[in-house]
Amino acid sequence: MSMPAPSSSPSVESILGDVFGYAAFRGPQKAIVDHVVAGGDALVLMPTGGGKSLCYQIPAIARQNAGLGITVVVSPLIALMHDQVGALHEAGVSAAFLNSTLSGEEANAVEKRLLRGDITLLYAAPERVTTPRFLAQLDALYERGQLGLFAIDEAHCVSQWGHDFRPEYRALTVLHERFPRVPRMALTATADDLTRADIVERLQLEEARQFVSSFDRPNIRYTIVEKTDATAQLLRFIEREHTGPEGRDAGIVYCQTRKKVEDLAQTLSKAGMTALPYHAGLDSAVRQNHQDRFLREDGVVMVATIAFGMGIDKPDVRFVAHLDMPKNIEGYYQETGRAGRDGLPANAWMAYGLQDVVNQRRMIDESPAGEEFKQVMRGKLDALLTLAEATDCRRVRLLGYFGESSTPCQNCDNCLQPPAVWDGTEAARMLLSTIYRVQQHSGISFGAGHLMDILRGKPTEKVAQFGHASLSTFGIGRTLSEVQLRGVLRQLIAQGALAVNAQAFNTLQLTDLSRAVLKGEVTVLLRESVSTPADRKTSRAKASAVPPAAASLDEAGQQRFAALKAWRGEVAREHNLPAYVIFHDATLAAIAARAPQSPDDLQGISGMGAKKLDAYGEEVLRVCNAAPTPAE
Ligand code: ADP
Ligand code: ZN
Hints:
Layout: H1 12-20, H2 29-37, E1 42-45, H3 52-65, E2 70-74, H4 78-90, E3 95-98, H5 104-116, E4 121-124, H6 126-129, H7 132-143, E5 147-152, H8 173-178, E6 184-188, H9 193-202, E7 209-212, E8 220-226, H10 230-242, E9 243-244, E10 247-248, E11 250-254, H11 258-270, E12 274-278, H12 284-296, E13 300-304, E14 317-322, H13 329-336, E15 346-352, H14 354-366, H15 371-389, H16 394-401, H17 413-416, E16 421-423, H18 425-442, H19 448-455, H20 461-466, H21 482-494, E17 498-501, E18 507-510, H22 512-518, E19 525-527, H23 555-575, H24 579-582, H25 585-594, H26 610-626
Parallel strand pairs: 1-6, 1-7, 2-4, 2-5, 3-4, 5-6, 8-15, 11-13, 11-14, 12-13, 14-15
Antiparallel strand pairs: 9-10, 16-19, 17-18
Helix pairs in contact: 2-3, 14-15, 18-19, 23-25, 23-26
């Protein structure tokens, strides 16, 4: 790929077909590729799974073919660079990475290849890119006209409003200042306006053309359930939706604390799953090992804090579950987006409860950040709470948050099973007036448990101690269940009609909005609390016996598919790469469906590029024809 041959350069379409084995560009890919090949700057906002990698990989190949030199890909994902480069090698593209995992000798070898022009794509961590040594090497390439493109991946890392702020990204402005003639593209799956504006400003991309895709992920089903017993709920969810005769699906479960991660990983393991913990407190070798196993083995459930996941390009993650609520919609969208990159059905499932609201509010209040920052964070949290409490389409709200309008999706819990809504205005007034009276009576505030006891007329010790049985509201909420009252409480807090004072034992206090509710000026429509979410039927069929990619194959096809998968596993182990880097499930399924007899039969299968056909074609034919055929 390194010989300049501008006149006979293949078109970007033929690179797509020959190198990657794909028939057509997706969505805005073509426009982006053309713009960058021609030397334009670009800001690419595309959801996870949208196909960002090709947006810089194809221009990199095209520009190298045209004699314009190498592409430097700046990425914070050190742990994944090895696999990314491995995937390019499999496709026959010359690529390398430079990061702290290489020995001095290995790094020297890469630098030599770099200066020889023997690399098409070089992946490097931001802290590496901005060292004087590396910049001097880029100078040498620049002078010879051999610096073809900068691709800044995960560009939201430059912004403190993004969820993965990396101060090293700020130093990347040097690229534009020092190499003004080299086109730059920044790519991210983070869509909110604040972050986008920040990326443009921080990376000086004012002149760059912006390519904004739809952020919809139609294959992801969103479900948010009320948290009762989170672990039991999660177990039931995985059992019901992600367990089949062939085993379990791969998934990610997010929890807030390291301890919870550890405990839950143990619980899931005891329940027979392959569940691995991942958090920043683990030794880095253990973390890397767990990540490798998640990427390389089938059916691993990763139990993790948000330290896990950025850049994970495993295509067949079938579910992402949240046992604790993220900080904001960006985080929720980003984390859930790791499910279903391959476009096949996947679940985003979250259990959410009163304690989540309280914890998140407290973390903001107690953070050392300035008041202005806290205000922004509170606003973002409130948007997520609104999503969690919503009784209408989750997707419409999610996309609405990112400025996209849409119609009800028929693929979220609220669309599939519209929740019952009840008028909670009266219950809300009872609750608020109890808080008011208790405060008047005792001069102090109380927490949720005691207030509910008063409402439900329970003669507890505390009630006796403070004489709260004498209050006019004692027992007026007898007809309401505890679950209902908790629902009212949570939703009032989520809506800002009640405040939780974290500094004073999580006591509840009235807000300006509570007065409006008390006066009857506001109607409070509440989501019917569901005491046993497990009993709720989802319209989805039980997990099928076969992976979704192979669902439409006949019996002989299934046999070929299984044989191909086993073969792929061996190749992947030999190459020390995840299986999907060799071939995706979808590619194996397409091969199995075709029952190929000759190399010609393998032409035009999506994901089968020229290099792979050459390297694996014969093996694939052999494996297909050796697969047992089902008995008559
Ligand atoms: P992102 O980085 O945006 O999350 P990727 O670049 O990992 O997404 O692409 C997601 C998946 O879609 C990958 O498996 C990739 O091979 C596949 N893909 C991307 N573009 C195309 C295309 N034009 N045709 C077929 N598959 C594609
Ligand atoms: Zn919906």
